[in-house]
Write the structure tokens for this entry.
Amino acid sequence: MNYKKPTKAIITDAGFASRYLPITKTIPKAMMPIGNRPVMQLVVEECVKAGITQIIIVATPEGKPIYEDYFNNACNHIRKQLASQGKQDRYESIEKVLDFPKITVIVQDPSFPYGNGSPIASARPYIRDDEAFVAIYSDDVVFGKSAVSDLLDAFEEHPDAAAIIAGQPVPHEEIKKYASISLDGDKVTGLIEKPDPKDAPSDLASYGRYLLTPEIFGFLNPANTGLDNELWTADAIARLIPTGRVYAKKTSGTWMTTGDPKNYFLAHLKHVLDSEDYADDVKKFIKEAK
């Protein structure tokens, strides 16, 4: 069957981000800032630009109230204080957050095993049987054209799709960090999670943007754990490949991961150099620090 075009996005941040301890004992990893916005807001904005109208964030039990507060609390005491100081324009950034489409925050089902597929599976009750949806890992940010828009464009080209994977080439030695995609035209013929580079079918890496259909939930279950006994989204998609309806889309935006402190810093630096009015001061500082 052909599914309805996605209007919903599942965004996951249900891990404990041990590489960021101690700060992530208090705040979710995707609440780390890029400029004056958290990573999660950049991901939400990417969805909004693509026309997504409902967002489900899958969080830890500790993270759920933090996300609910961030996206729903009007902070009227701040608004009143800024108004009394004649600085009402500073409240506009909060109004923008409050104007986002519907955002629902849920907790990952504790009965699921560890793995990046478990948060997506936990959101199954929010997806109708007749609709495709977008699934996003909040570790990844995309600068420039929305990768979600690219996926929706690909869905227009392949309305029969069971799944569409966003991909970009990476240096050969880096493919071991991702799922490696092999292709025949736009069709995916193979998908291997975190391969040894010598065994990788290509250097085209699947990253945290997918267009999926309810068919995926038949394989995202505890009986289908893979590497390290984890439940992997890539493994579930690989089980759909024999249908001949799994496609890949080489996205055009600049994809960067924030999954570890080094790459988070580089993503933050790119944002600053591209978008902040103090970019020249940062460039000068870097030049003089050499």
In short: The chain has a mean pLDDT of 92. The chain has one domain: 8-289.
